From TrEMBL:
Domain of life of the native organism: Bacteria
Protein name: Cupin superfamily protein
Gene3D superfamilies: Jelly Rolls (2.60.120.10)
Domain spans labelled DUF985: 6-138
Amino acid sequence: MTSRPEELIAYFGMKPLPVEETYFINTYISEAKTAEGGPAGTAGLGLYLTAPRSASTAHVLTFDEVWHFYEGDPVALYEFHPDGTARTILLGRDIAAGQVMQHTIKAGVIQAGEVAPGGTWSLFACTMSPGFNATCFEGVTKSELRGKYAGYEEIIERMGVPDGHETSLPADYVNERFKS
C-alpha cells in the first residue's frame, strides 16, 4: 500500500532540491520575464518528511516567499533575522493553537523549515514574485549561524548547511514543472 506522501511524490514527480533537500516541483512558472531574465512569478509544491528526511536547510532568498499550508502535519518555519532575533512560525490548520495557514518570509531573512516536532510529513506550497531562480538562492552554513541566535543552537545544528557543502544552486538549475 502506498502512503499519502509517496502518492504525492509520484503524482507530482517531486524531486529533492539541491542544497536544501526539500521534495519539490514547480506548478507554475510565468512566461513573463523580469529585466534580469528570470520568471516574473513561480509557484510550487513542497513536501517534508521525517523518514527519509526531507527539509529546507538554512538559506536566504533575494525575494519575498509566501508559504501556504495544504495537508499533513504542521510545518516549523525558522526565521533568522539580521538583527540577531529568531522566531519559529507553525504553518498548519489549527489557528486556535496559533498556527497560520499562510506566512510570508521577507527577502534577506535566513529561513529553514521542517515537519514540526511530533509530525511525520507536511505538504505545502511556496509562491514568489519575481519568481524563484538559481541566482536568488544562497544556502547558509552552520558556522555562519553559530553564536548569533540564542535559543536556536540545536535548530542551527540540524538545519544549517554543513560546512564545506555547496551553498549555491548550479547556474543552469531549473526545477521541472508539473505537467497535468
